[in-house]
Amino acid sequence: KVMVGTKVDQNHVNWITAYNMLTGIRFTVSRINAKMDRPLTDADFDAKNKFSFDITGNELTPSAKYDFKFKDYSPWVFRHLRAKFRLDPADYLMSLTSKYILSELGSPGKSGSFFYFSRDYKYIIKTIHHGEHRFLRHILRDYYKHVEDNPDTLISQFYGLHRVKTPFGRKIHFVVMNNLFPPHRDIHQTFDLKGSTIGRDFKEENLAQNPRATLKDLNWLRRDMNLNFGPTKKELFLQQVHRDVELLKRLHIMDYSLLLGIHDLTKGNSEDIRNNTLKVFQPGASTAEAGQDDPASHMLQRTPSKMEKARQARELRKTINKEVPITLDRGANRLPEEFLEQRNTIFYGDDGGFRATHENDENGDVIYYLGIIDCLTHYGFVKRLEHFWRGLSNPKDQVSAIPPDGYGDRFFKFISGHVKSQEEAARDKAARE
Ligand code: ATP
Ligand code: CA
Ligand code: CA
Predict the structure, then answer these.
(1) Using CA atoms, how far apart are residues 184 and 319, in angstroms rounded to an integer?
(2) Residues 195 and 165 in one domain
(3) Which helix (H) or strand (E) holds 268?
(4) Do 103 and 247 reside in the same domain of the chain?
């Protein structure tokens, strides 16, 4: 499901918003990248810059297709974060560039957020609520410090925080973050795990109709699933989850989940996903259409030629068709290669993910693509909502939204209880029966 998106082109209802988001990102990111690097100051965390775009352009901003206002938050902080997450500045701009770059993933959650993939599928733009936006600004120092101390954090990697305002005054806040799932590999199963069982069930009878649906905690338990890691990876993984959860507890965050995509190497990539992947990339289409009339195109630091793009598309197609072997020939395919370079950290180091291991730490047959997502819900919001709904029947002090400490402990307990090698899991199962 996640692989497929609706292409956002000129006929799409959100075309103008998406276009304005990208124009604003390109302008502000180019602007900050053009400056000489310097250490962060305290004021950088509270900084915000406002820009006005219009069709004629002005001394500050180039002309744009539409009139809109754009606000860029803490640009220096995000520049440094992008560097910490090892993003290549030119590459980041190129990914969020050109007209046909996005595909929209409707609104997969209940929150009403929209999700857009960059054309090359590396980045996700998520629209967020004003409350989440304010909260991210509020915790930015702690988040930054955490990334500094935990370069391998599993928490969503934020690369930018921005706002567009339409001429009608509608404000849309959004973040740019990492897509956990790889462009070049089929995800055979997806889970979104919170450690809670209440309402955490994807109806099994709907699975036939939607085989790539995101499954939840109860589906996980029903399938007797585990994250199969031998002792070394288990230790590494749980240590990081623990550190991440401690941060989330301290910041009074809840409602986050472990997003997990499983690629089964014995299954490889299916026909179906090959087509979808190409649909998302649209490498050919964008080449033909990304032209001179693109007002922000001059801001690109590195524009691949038509020929280069066509070559990339051919190679991508070739690679996808021949089913990428686990050790990618690095010269063979530029797009997966960049994807891998960006992610040569522990948990994104095995072909963009974290490969299962056996009890003896030898490689297993699946690659896990995972991370902790949806980390901007502050306990205060949830509690206020609960008070509102329950206030009529319950006295205030009995209201019990699970506080962040309880949420985090339950989350960690659930995950740590389901990390074991295949061999260990088999022994546990035998003992139970
Ligand atoms: P809700 O608050 O109802 O849970 P939400 O709008 O806040 O919804 P998320 O929980 O952030 O949405 O994400 C919803 C789904 O979008 C996830 O289950 C996953 O399928 C996809 N998704 C979100 N973030 C990522 C990511 N970083 N990489 C890949 N997929 C993602
Ligand atoms: Ca969620
Ligand atoms: Ca949410």
Answers:
(1) 8
(2) no
(3) none
(4) no
Which of these ranges, 221-230, 349-358, 374-383, 396-405, has the smallest mean pLDDT? 396-405
Q: Whose CA is nearest to atom 19 of ligand 1?
A: 259
299 belongs to a structural domain: no
Q: Report the alpha-carbon distance of residue 59 to residue 51 in Å, rounded.
A: 11
What is the length of the chain?
433
342 lines ligand 1 (CB under 6 A): no
Q: Does one domain contain both 158 and 226?
A: no
Least confident of 70-74, 194-198, 323-327, 405-409: 323-327
Q: What is the ipTM of this complex?
A: 0.99
What CATH number has the domain bearing residue 343? Answer: 3.30.810.10
Helix axes 404-416, 231-250, angle to 10 degrees: 170
15 and 99 both lie in a single domain: yes
Inside any domain, residue 432: yes
Ligand 3 centre from 254 Cα, in Å? 9
Domain of residue 427, residue span? 182-269+323-433
Provide mean pLDDT across the span 79-87.
Answer: 96
Question: 283 lies in a domain?
Answer: no
Ligand in closest contact with the CA of 131: 3
Q: For 32-60, what is each residue's pLDDT tens digit?
A: 999 999 999 999 999 999 999 999 988 88
Return the ligand 1 atom nearest residue 192 CA.
Answer: 18
Higher pLDDT among residues 228 and 319, named by residue? 228
Q: What is the pLDDT of residue 277?
A: 36
Give the whole-angstrom CA distance, residue 275 versus residue 324.
15
| Mean pLDDT of the residues in the chain | 81
**Could you give the CA distance from residue 40 to residue 63 in angstroms, rounded to a whole number?**
31
177 CB under 6 A from ligand 1? yes
pLDDT score of 402: 77
150, 179, 208 — which closes off a domain? 179
Residue 290 contacts residue 99 (beta carbons within 8 Å):
yes
The span from the CA of 104 to the CA of 106, in Å, is: 6
For tokens 């291991």, the residue is 357
Q: Are residues 85 and 140 in the same domain?
A: yes
Tally the domains of the chain: 2
**CB count in 10 Å sphere of residue 24:** 25
* pLDDT tens sequence across 347-363: 999 999 999 999 999 99
